[in-house]
Sequence to fold (240 residues):
Amino acid sequence: MPTLGVNIDHVATIRQARQTVEPDPVAAAVLAELAGADGITVHLREDRRHIQERDVRILRQTVRTHLNLEMAPTKEMVAIALEIKPDYITLVPERREEVTTEGGLDVAGNLPQMREVVAQLQGEDIPVSMFIDAERVQIEASAETQAKFIELHTGSYAEAEDEATRYKELTVLADGCQIAIAAGLRVNAGHGLTYWNVYPVACLEGMEELNIGHTIISRAVLVGMERAVREMKLAIYGNL
Ligand code: PXP
Fold:
């Protein structure tokens, strides 16, 4: 079965809502690893809306599994990545106004730029993964860049409104996996996966790692609520 990369961006989103120091994504990464996470994923966005550069620098030192840095293929991000040297990098498209990463990267439409970014990063021994839709043209273009991995965008599968559409989207992902493997790529997947829809994707042949964030942080908030309130009552009575 594939390994699990836990995306901890939302922990930083809560911290940034108050511009304070809690909750600390570095602490969240430690706990995620203790619970069995195989990797930690963070997205350093151009607007720094959640994860900050300082978080990535500290995570580089504290993560004991592997650190996957998601970033846009820009000069600024490449410079940061070459300095911090995460274990691997996932290149993602980025638009300032989006709530979260919306579509996959257009590798085919920007081949020379993508080739250059992959060469810069992999030239420093940082494997690169391209976050793309499961379309043959994007998969083959990703192989042309010499990137080691692709991450298949599972958004269309996750957002399918009925079983027939979900099954069709799963087939698209399964075909994408096979096209990628035939082209010499390794395959990860992510976006919109939940406790309820993850299993069929985990069963896809050749799938190596699933990157999952929103559903895990959402569940963490709820399963932790009772304890958090109980502890505040104790704190009010000076008994924590
Ligand atoms: N993979 C990539 C490339 C992403 O951009 C995201 C969202 O930050 C994820 C995986 C995780 O998606 P979700 O938070 O929906 O699990």
